[in-house]
Amino acid sequence: MLFPLLFFILLGCFASWLVIHSLLAIGFGQGGDGEVQHHHTHTGIIPRIGGVGIMAGFGLTYLLCFFQLNPGDNKTLLHFAVVGGATGAFLLGFIDDFRPLGAKLKLLAQILIAVVAYKCGLSIDRVGIPFTDTMINLGTFGLLITVVWFVAIMNLINLIDGLDGLAGGVGLMLMALLVYLGIQQGIVFSTILSLGMVGAILGFLFHNFPPAKCYMGDSGAYMIGYVIAALSLLNSEKGSVLAALIAPALALALPIVDVVFALLRRGIKGLPLFRPDRGHIHHRLMGYGLSRRNTVLVLYAISLFALVGGLLAFAERGRYLPIFLGFAFVIILFALRGQKISAESVRVLLSDSLQSRQGTRNAMYLKNWLVVEAERADSAKHLWSDFRFVLKKMGICRAELKMGEQQREFYVPHTPHDDLEQLWEETHRTVGDIPVELTVYGEKDNFSENQFALAADIAAEALSSARTKWKEVNGSPMDFDSVAKEATDYKRQKARNLYRPTY
């Protein structure tokens, strides 16, 4: 029994490792990550090709299943739905990695993939009431719940892909859980594919564990998420319908909690719900002084603990799950003891955030305006004048910007811009083709500390997004001496003629 398990793991691992190694050797996808983004934690341009290797390991495992499985076990439509949907999710992410798609278009494509999976039989038609034998038929609501299940899991894996090795490690643990569920349910197809995915993710982690040589990208994240969602439903065909779904959901406790808090945090502040930020749990751990490697190891430990909860949800019909949840609650209370959280501190935070919602929305409008101006600006000098206008309208009274070896300064007259005791100060750095350092200052009379931190973050994001747009339009990174390339069509030339920088 042990040899077949190891064979499929080693097969997926070698295929994934070899494909990624070969792509890195020939330099494929070196520009896939584009300009380094403001909210990224890495410090260089890292190719997002890991999903290709993971797909190779998965595909090779499936081909072996297709030709070797007993025809009586090979339920063609269901199995094609698993592999076809995984391929569709991979292609959607692969396109987005190299030619970014809009959020609405990606969501629509994910819904379409989920609907096709539902029509092929990968559906949630009934659920069981915990600790009873009662089953509830969902009827037409089954389609909605199935779509939500697929879309949520795909995006959960993608949203935690913000730190070297994190999404891959969590995905690896989920696949190991699915191996166990597949063996317990006696579903050979699910077990073999899960084993292949364990190997494929291991092969990817050889290149992704800190310091990362590549990222899985949206292609790998969407595909892993789809396979987790699909195999969970496949395992639910026989026996414990509820447990087969609850176990993976519990094992995903870390990304679920992180995403829920992120959505609440952004909603309270008036930010777009899916805007990246530096408030995720891995950002906070690194802010406490942990290295990237140690941060990943801490999060692995949390995910492993959650995985145990998933196993207990399945084993013994969930008999030991309440004990696990009680133990987890005690750990959470112990972890929060040193955080100085009180009802008053929460009230102040909510009040502060709600009061700044209008200013936050205005700042986001200004950020989007600057990106549009970057598309038609004729020089970096003029775009710098537009950025000064944005800073002034956001309430920033002084700023210092370094791009490469050059530096520019800006201040608003008749403000205490040179009295550091009256000012908040924050610095943001981005390392890319041209290193950038932006330091901004705001009056303490006009901002609370949290409000200023948010304003500074949006200002830095505006600059980063504008520089990315400049590089996309003009084909070269922006410094203070940059001049836009000659317009290639009448429409772009007309837009440039109408461009008027703010002085």
Briefly characterize the structure.
The chain is an alpha+beta fold and 503 residues long. The protein has helices at residues 2-26, 50-68, 76-98, 103-119, 141-159, 166-185, 188-208, 217-235, 241-251, 253-269, 281-287, 292-314, 321-336, 343-355, 357-376, 380-393, 449-474, 490-498, and strands spanning 126-128, 135-137, 398-403, 406-411, 423-430, 436-443.
Summarize the structure in words.
The protein has 503 residues and is α+β, with helices and mostly antiparallel strands. The protein has 2 domains: 2-25 and 51-252, no CATH class; 357-498, Beta-Lactamase, CATH 3.30.450. Helix content is 63%, strand content 7%. It is built from 18 helices and 6 strands. The chain has helices spanning 2-26, 50-68, 76-98, 103-119, 141-159, 166-185, 188-208, 217-235, 241-251, 253-269, 281-287, 292-314, 321-336, 343-355, 357-376, 380-393, 449-474, 490-498; strands at 126-128, 135-137, 398-403, 406-411, 423-430, 436-443. Strands 4-3-6-5 form a 4-stranded antiparallel beta sheet, covered by helices on one side. Strands 1-2 form a two-stranded antiparallel sheet. Helix 6 runs parallel beside helix 12 and helix 8 (217-235) packs antiparallel against helix 9. The longest helix has 26 residues, at 449-474. The termini are far apart. The model has no long low-confidence stretch (mean pLDDT 78).
Question: Which features would summarize this protein structure in a list?
Answer:
Beta-Lactamase, 503 residues, single chain, 2 domains, four-stranded antiparallel beta sheet, 18 helices, alpha+beta, two-stranded antiparallel sheet
